[in-house]
Amino acid sequence: MPSRLNPYISFDGDARQALEFYKEVFGGTLALNTYGDFGGEEAGDASDRIMHGMLETASGFTLMAADNPPGTPHSPGNNISVSVSGEDDAELRGYWDALSAGGTVSVPLEKQMWGDVFGMCADRFGITWLVDISAPKG
Q: Which Pfam families does the record associate with it (predicted)?
């Protein structure tokens, strides 16, 4: 398997809901492991929280996420953003529509000075998404 670069997002108890939402948006296969799966009774109140989750899609996207371990502070904010880019206008607009629904749009999805259609939003879980639709080459 080749090396890959993908985002890994931390959550404070809603990793399962977020990953299930992203699966609805992008499709693919979602694998979830809880703290209870690995720690048994020692996981205590965290037994149902996600220790590691991974979404892999037919488009080649990989998104990993987990709930912070018990007792670890959660610091949401602009410490992560996820970029989705390509030439398939319909596909990327579909992602934009789903991700921005219930979220906050900071840059509307529209043609930018560099020629691409670009938008930036925070989804309903507070994750910043950058969507860039480039003109087909050739």
A: Glyoxalase
Please check whether the domain covering 81-133 is classified as CATH 3.40.50.300.
no
User: Residue 35 belongs to what H/E stretch?
Assistant: helix 35-39
Q: How many angstroms separate the CA atoms of 61 and 38, rounded?
A: 26
For 21-54, the pLDDT digits (tens) are: 999 999 999 999 998 887 767 767 788 999 899 9
What are the phi and psi torsion angles at 7 (to 5°)?
Answer: -75, 150
Q: What is the CA radius of gyration of the chain?
A: 17
pTM over 0.90: no
Structure tokens of 39?
């720690």
* Angstrom distance (rounded) from CA 47 to CA 55: 21
- Could you tell me if 112 and 118 are in contact, meaning their C-beta atoms sit under 8 angstroms apart? yes
Q: What does the buried/exposed string (b/e) look like for 30-51 if buried means 16 or more CB atoms within 10 Å of the residue's CB?
A: bebebbbeeeeeebeebbebbb
